[in-house]
Amino acid sequence: MNTSSYFNLFLSNIRLTPKQKKNLIEGHTTLRSSLAEDPKLKNVIVTTFLQGSYRRATALKDKNAKRADVDVVVVTNFDRNKVTPNQALEYFRAFLDIHYPGAYKFQGRSISITLPDVDMDLVITSAPSEVNQKVLGMESVTDTRNLEELGNDWRMTYEWTAPERRDAWTSSMFESLRKSEEWKAESLYIPDREKEDWEETNPLEQIRWTRDKNKATNSHYVNVVKALKWWRMGKLTNRKYPKGYPIEHMIGDCCPDDIKSVAEGVVKTLDKILATYRWNRLTEKTPELIDRGVTSHNVWKRVSDSDFINFYDHVKDAAATARLAFDSENVSDQIKYWRELFGEEFPPLSEEDARNERLQEKSKLLESGILTVNSKIQIVAGSHGLSVPKERNHYEITSDL
Predict the structure, then answer these.
(1) 76 has which bridge partners?
(2) Nearest to 252 by CA among 231, 272, 279, 232
(3) Does domain 13-201 have CATH number 3.30.450?
(4) Catalytic residues, which ones?
(5) Where does 236-283 have alpha helices with state H?
(6) Rounded mean pLDDT of 56-69?
(7) Of 1, 12, 251, 323, which is most buried by a Cβ count within 10 Å?
(8) What ranges do the domains of the chain cover?
(9) Residue-wise DSSP of 315-357
(10) What pTM does this model have?
(11) What CATH number does the domain located at 202-349 have?
């Protein structure tokens, strides 16, 4: 029996709640507007856009139903050869004291803003080239919706326009969008106060890669990511790493294309992780996973060998459970194992499916002769075969057993 409806409800249960999403949108909208209107900052800010799991459509609600979080990138005209990382971050302090007094904290490579309903990371970048400034100003970059909301035709081109503004589009305009060549965004540089240097990053390439992967997996990839990130949140509670994007990156490397369901994606991704990193587990050495847009960046560099071993061993247990769920014939067994893997947010077996499963089992036993039907009950013949009204318990084990 197909469990897609159960996965749909599960995914609905673990997404950002409507309230969290509302708070997130209000938070980043207010922040970006205030930045653009600040008399001091408006002269150094080129543009702002969203990055991170929210933009890639892989964000989850907090397991404790707390605040949502979002990353806001601020592209500046700072020359990284003349402005130090600390100077770049300090330039925003006066703005933060006015708009977010007591609610911000300078971190190694960003500024965190903690509000009652949302957490925001303010990511400052140095000046891009003139060509890249034009790219970063495109509507496809500055639109704040996530990949699921934007649809699979989202492209980093000047031709891309938000779907709600295409009512007057002609077929030739759609064809032009489809054939338009995408810009390959250059890397940006963010200040690293600990290293006292600017670090290369390319969040737009991560977004683009996620879009392509989602297309290749029949739009199941981002949901596979959400499901497995939820599993990690519930099962690996004794370790800080790996988490967030590093896990998402590994899932992306291991999730097969052309999967037909989230369930298939989950079980095959876990199996592939085990096969791909088996040697790393045997040698007890954390693998290197190269960032999508920055070949010099290992996204697993913060994961210690012991953290990797712990993660791999949890994946091994999860893969066994997922395989039991995926291969089970009875829907009740499938649901039992999926709930064991994902917890109570995965819905329990419905009464209707439980009843249908019991009827199917009894039907098989009747056909085999193991069960017989009590002559006092009514048998109803319908378009789908014989049935017993309301599934009354009028079955007898044959006397010759």
Answers:
(1) 45
(2) 272
(3) no
(4) 69, 71, 121
(5) 245-254, 262-276, 278-283
(6) 81
(7) 251
(8) 13-201, 202-349, 359-397
(9) HHHHHHHHHHHHH-SSHHHHHHHHHHHH-TTSPPPPHHHHHHH
(10) 0.87
(11) 1.10.1410
